[in-house]
Amino acid sequence: MGLAIAPSKSARRARWVATGLTVPSWMLLLALFAIPIGIGIWLSFRNEALNSFAEPKFVGLDNYRKMTAEPKSTELIDAGITTVIIMGLGLAIQLPVGVGLAVLLNRRLRFSRWYRSALLIPMLLTPVAVGMMWRFMLDTDTGVINWLIERFGANGPDWLGSRWGARVAVVLVDSWQSIPFVMLLVLAGLAGIPDGPDEAARVDGATGWQIFRRITTPQLRPVLYVVLMIRIIDTFKLFDTIFILTKGGPGTATQTLAMYNYSLGFVLLKTSQAAAVGTVLAIITLPVYLLWQRASRAADA
Amino acid sequence: MKRPNRRTTHHHVEGRQRTIPLLIALLSALALVAGACGNDNKDAATDGGTTAATTPKYTPPAQDSDVKELNIFLIPSPSSTSIQSFIPAFEKETGIKVNFTETPYTEAHNKQLLSYKQKAGAYDIAQFDNTYLANFGVNQVMAPLDDYLANSPAYDTTDFSQGQLEYGKYKNTTYGLTLSTEPMIQWYRTDLLADAGLEPATTWDEYLANAEALKAAGKGGNVLGFGPGVTWWWMTLVWSFGGKLYDDNLKPQVTSDAVVKATEYLKKLLEAAPDGASSLDGDTSVAKFFSTDVGQMLNYSGYYGSVKDPATNPYIDKFETARMPMGETDITHLAGWNIGIPSDSKKQDAAWKFMEFVLGKSNAVDYLKSGAAAIGRKSITSNAELITTNPYLPLLDIPAESRIERYPQLKVWPDFQKAADEAVTPMLTGDVDIKTGLADLNTKLAGILAGENE
């Protein structure tokens, strides 16, 4: 049973000052995030279109209803499937390779600081520059990648002109740029794992793989969840790489939900419909965001 | 003991913190749904559709009596650069200061649309793509130019063929002057064709035969935009093969035999193209043609000015141009920039004065010499001196018997093109069967074209 002690006058003043000091940050957040999001949601209930000069009106849920009717429903489902395919393929590459590299670099090999710095370079480049560079390299006719493949006596695929070639190309380029990010987070996770259990297991005769699987991985799990969630959210947003590499083609082969929404808003100029799709996308990613928050808390603990 | 208590308290507080925003969100959603249900939107054009029938007759805003400056909206291009070169002379002659802004193509029309919606009169002259002519026309965001044209000996409409004068018209009203005349033409490498013993094609059969022969000889047979924007080439072939995209009642016609044949032909051209050509768009196909061994290309004549630099084009002396091969129907696919006067401008007479100055007959030669893509005036396309440096100029003199086709003047054209772009390339690569793909496209286009008159 403790006594309830009222906060002192100076403590109350300090709290007010602290609150006052956060006001500019709140205003900034409000201006940069809350208001645009609010306007986006408001737009989704209207029939604004940049190329229309008719007086815009409030249309209730019409833009949302359109998403469930043809042809938009099929287009959205196709874009959703493409997003999931690119996400699945990407995660299948990025997580194992990123974790593998992190485990290797964590072993304090010679020059590991150099390797680490070199491996982080792709993460520092702008996606547009990366996309353009890879577009040249992936050129089926004159690109260096198919030239290398031909040196081994095989014919390189039509990377950007075929349905699956383009999808794989997007996944490879995105992976090239995001594997360092995965590696960096996992390295940070590995640094927080005590050496004791590993050493004890080694003394007991456990192999490297057994130690990794039964001791390292369980301790790394919260970090891996965080990485997984961030990469899922990143893939939902993936736009610039695809825009530069394939513009969503051939056909709609690489038209993800983000690309689809871009087309709707900035090519077809259907502002309100794009806002509605954007709102739904945000709602779809919300559970992932909540899972990410939970995983972050677990990782912190 | 402490831990569970703390967690319980924490959860309790967290739960309360969550409940309040949740309630607010719920109430907002309820309000929105209630609003939606209560809204009588029978009259609402949910696509933001425009109604030409209800648009009032155009009346220009009150004009400024003393014009001291003009504001011009330009899009980076050789035509824009050329226009800028005339500004000092115009300012000297009239005392009117001319300001200009250049906005990249990808944002240019969005920026213009936003400006016209605000009716702020921000621009007195604007460059725009012909694909926007219908939208600008139906919404009357560009001022009609016919009265100016009828009373302008300096512009001299008799120096143009009728087909070219039609280029800036939407429903018989001129909303834009021609800023460049860019028919789709045939480009070929003289050295590669000569090595293979081939002549420039005059028919589609010859063009394909040349492409296949070049491919067999280890070269690229031909290039064009097989990827993004493929619709421009596909519709050219459709017209040339005697087909059409839609009929007079706006019913799509892309399942006809002519369209199937045109699509099959395009597929064969892709097979004779360099590997990976299905990802090329208009610009990258030009880059491919001028940087690798490709024998033939179909593309707009407007690229001519930009490929004349020996520093960037290793094949500067090894290419020539010719008319597009002939199909069942003699058509010319005409493209090019337009320039007009936004209807919210309060300086329309002065704006016309500037356009007349730059694009009038007396400055036409200087306009071309300053680097612009040529305008197909008769006095230009028949100018012997200019032809020696610009041998493609006679191709802009479109024969009277050739039917001029341009981007379909539809308000829903962006939707139409996106649907066609997405459908055609997979048919060319073999991912989708041509007849099935065209049937699906026809269904999709029916929905899109139905929105034209909303």
Explain the overall architecture.
The complex is a heterodimer of chains A (301) and B (454). Chain A has twelve helices and no strands. With 301 residues, chain A is an all-alpha fold. In chain A, helix 3 packs across helix 11, helix 7 (163-191) packs across helix 9 (208-237) and helix 8 runs antiparallel to helix 9. Chain B is an alpha/beta fold and 454 residues long. Chain B folds into two domains: 59-181 and 336-405, D-Maltodextrin-Binding Protein, domain 2; 183-333 and 410-450, Periplasmic binding protein-like II (D-Maltodextrin-Binding Protein, domain 2, 3-Layer(aba) Sandwich), CATH 3.40.190. Helices cover 44% and strands 11% of the residues of chain B. In chain B, helix 16 (413-429) runs antiparallel to helix 17 (434-450). The longest helix of chain B has 37 residues, at 2-38. Mean pLDDT of chain B is 87; it is low at 1-55.
Low-confidence stretches of chain A: none
Number of helices of chain B: 17
Distance between the termini of chain B: 70 Å
Mean pLDDT of chain B: 87
How big is the Rg of chain A? 25 Å
> Which pair of chains has the greatest number of interface residues, and how are they split between the two chains?
A-B, 50 and 51 residues
Structural class of chain A: mainly alpha
Residues in β-strands, percent of chain A: under 5%
End-to-end distance of chain A, in Å? 29 Å
**Net shape of chain B:** globular
Tell me about the largest β-sheet of chain B: 5 strands, mixed
Highest CATH level, the class of the largest domain in chain B = Alpha Beta
Average predicted confidence as pLDDT of chain A: 90
